[in-house]
Write a structure and sequence with these properties.
It is a single chain. The chain is mostly helical. The chain has 2 domains: 2-17 and 135-223, Arc Repressor Mutant, subunit A (Orthogonal Bundle); 25-129, Winged helix-like DNA-binding domain superfamily/Winged helix DNA-binding domain (Arc Repressor Mutant, subunit A, Orthogonal Bundle). The chain has helices spanning 2-23, 45-64, 71-77, 83-99, 122-129, 139-151, 156-163, 168-176, 199-204, 216-223, and strands spanning 104-109, 112-117, 154-155, 180-185, 193-197. The strands form 2 sheets. The chain has a 3-stranded antiparallel beta sheet. α1 (2-23) packs across α6 and α6 (139-151) packs across α8. The two termini are 13 Å apart.
């Protein structure tokens, strides 16, 4: 089981490094990113201008935030009708970035959306502004984090049974780094705490949801 734990840790570490490359230069994005729209016909001028204004508002909110925002939150901040309209405009904004080969992209991560630089620009941005802050975890911490990620909600006793060592101090460190949190209490004797991952965990590893974690057969491929 320890061998699988280390493989899980390797997968989590490589996923985190790839995502950190994308987010390394986020704060250096130009403030104006939407190109001029085609000249509208008189009948559709008001409708097109209104749509462009909404996209500008949505883009401004994405530019200013440092955390992923849900479509519901984006709609509220950008004065849109609802999350459905926000998602529709996000698709249009994403299409424009891709069509024009922009340096940034709209990324869905941790249950929300965020503007991030493209991965291929990471080396250039690092030369200009230094390396992005990297999340460093020891092998035991990665193993513990992997067990919780795949078994959550999970009690400490189960984590320690899988790893074969005590994990109290490691769990404390992971909670201080906002990668793990207490999600409730188990129904068994003593009502022990149940541990789970956080939104910050999803951000660090570039995941939209937990179901994007690497599959078990991928883990066995690395372990073999």
């Amino acid at each position: 089981m320890r061998r699988d734990d280390k493989s899980l840790g390797q997968l989590l570490r490589s996923t985190a490094l790839r995502y950190q490359q994308r987010r390394g230069g986020n704060r250096y994005v130009p403030s104006r990113l939407v190109s001029d729209l085609p000249e509208p016909s008189p009948k559709s001028a008001h409708r097109v201008d209104d749509s462009a204004s909404k996209i500008d508002q949505l883009e401004a909110v994405l530019f200013l935030t440092r955390e992923p925002l849900s479509t519901r939150k984006l709609a509220k901040l950008a004065k849109l009708a609802d999350g459905t309209e926000a998602r529709t405009l996000l698709k249009k904004l994403t299409g424009r970035y891709e069509q024009r080969g922009r340096a940034i992209q709209v990324v869905e991560v941790a249950g929300g959306f965020q503007l991030l630089t493209r991965p291929q620009l990471a080396p250039w941005i690092c030369r200009l502004h230094g390396e992005a802050q990297e999340v460093r975890l020891s092998a035991p911490a990665l193993e513990t984090l992997s067990v919780v990620a795949y078994r959550q909600p999970v009690v400490r006793a189960e984590i320690e049974a899988i790893r074969g060592v005590q994990c109290g101090e490691i769990l404390r460190v992971l909670m201080e780094r906002d990668l793990l949190r207490i999600v409730g209490r188990a129904d068994e004797l003593g009502r022990p705490y149940l541990y789970g991952t956080t939104k910050s965990f999803l951000q660090v590893f570039g995941l939209r949801r937990l179901d994007q974690l690497p599959l078990i057969d991928q883990i066995h491929g690395i372990a073999s």
